[in-house]
Design brief:
Layout (H helix, E strand, L loop, with lengths): L3 H57 L8 E2 L7 E3 L10 E6 L5 E8 L5 E9 L10 H8 L8 E9 L2 E8 L10 E7 L4 E7 L5 H13 L1 E3 L6 H12 L13 E2 L11
Antiparallel strand pairs: 1-3, 2-10, 3-4, 4-5, 5-9, 6-7, 6-11, 7-8, 8-9
Length: 262
């Protein structure tokens, strides 16, 4: 049997051993906790770094913009006044972009449905790209391809003011090529463009474009007062179509340099 003194002496030792074990347990738990928190922080840093790289990865892939679609239910906003009752009506197509743009396109075809003229009124929306040359679309509409370079072919005087003319460069029959035309308006944001292959001579083709633009009328402004104002002012300057080839419709020489805004 142990003496009371021996039993009493053993109690502090057991207490110290228990406290030491408890301390070791606490230290181990804290170490594991710090390691766990550290791992979570590391994963969070890696996740944030990956998220930060996502925009640049998306930028490397070109975003596919929604395509223009035919608006079958939209009503024509423009028309051409007829020269005579026998004149054939052009096809009329309305295209809309999800970002607000609208294109009213009139086309005329000749033999074998070959396009001989086109007139497009483009009301710009959020999709409009200011960095894209306007003549790129013009060359494509003339069935020349976007990479086909165009040269200035002078100016014509219309009820909308001076309109720039363009023709393809380096063609074997440049003098007899179809003529493209382009007129831009900042207020309202509007672009009138197209091409014409009508006429046997350059003056005749220029006069045909003038006649087309002077006959262009507005049917409805679609709650766009600036558009209505533009056409109202243009009607004041409207003249009847002159005989094809009349020099009264021309501004300067056939290859006059363009000046100012188109």
């Amino acid at each position: 049997m142990q003496s009371p003194e021996a039993s009493t002496a053993a109690t502090p030792t057991q207490i110290h051993l228990a406290l030491a074990a408890l301390a070791d347990e606490i230290v181990g738990t804290l170490a594991r906790l710090f390691a766990y928190v550290g791992a979570l922080v590391l994963f969070a840093i890696l996740a944030l770094a990956a998220l930060d790289q996502l925009p640049s990865l998306r930028d490397d892939e070109p975003a596919e913009k929604p395509a223009w679609s035919v608006a079958d239910r939209s009503q024509p906003a423009f028309a051409l006044s007829r020269l005579d009752s026998s004149e054939k009506t052009a096809s009329y197509v309305i295209l809309r972009d999800p970002e607000g743009g609208r294109r009213d396109v009139m086309r005329w075809a000749g033999e074998a449905d070959k396009p001989v003229a086109e007139l497009e009124i483009y009301r710009e929306g959020g999709e409009f790209d200011v960095t894209r040359p306007a003549t790129a679309d013009l060359a494509a509409h003339m069935d020349l391809g976007e990479t086909t370079p165009l040269e200035q072919a002078g100016l014509i005087d219309t009820k909308f003011g001076p309109v720039a003319l363009f023709r393809p460069i380096g063609t074997a029959e440049a003098a007899r090529a179809c003529l493209g035309y382009l007129k831009r308006s900042e207020e309202p944001a509007l672009q009138i463009s197209g091409f014409s292959c009508q006429g046997d001579t350059l003056p005749a083709r220029r006069a045909a474009i003038v006649c087309t633009l002077n006959r262009l009328t507005l049917l409805t402004s679609g709650n766009e007062p600036k558009l209505a104002e533009l056409f109202a002012h243009a009607e004041v300057k409207r003249r009847s179509c002159a005989p094809q080839g009349s020099s009264d419709w021309l501004l300067g020489a056939a290859n006059a340099q363009l000046r100012g805004a188109l």
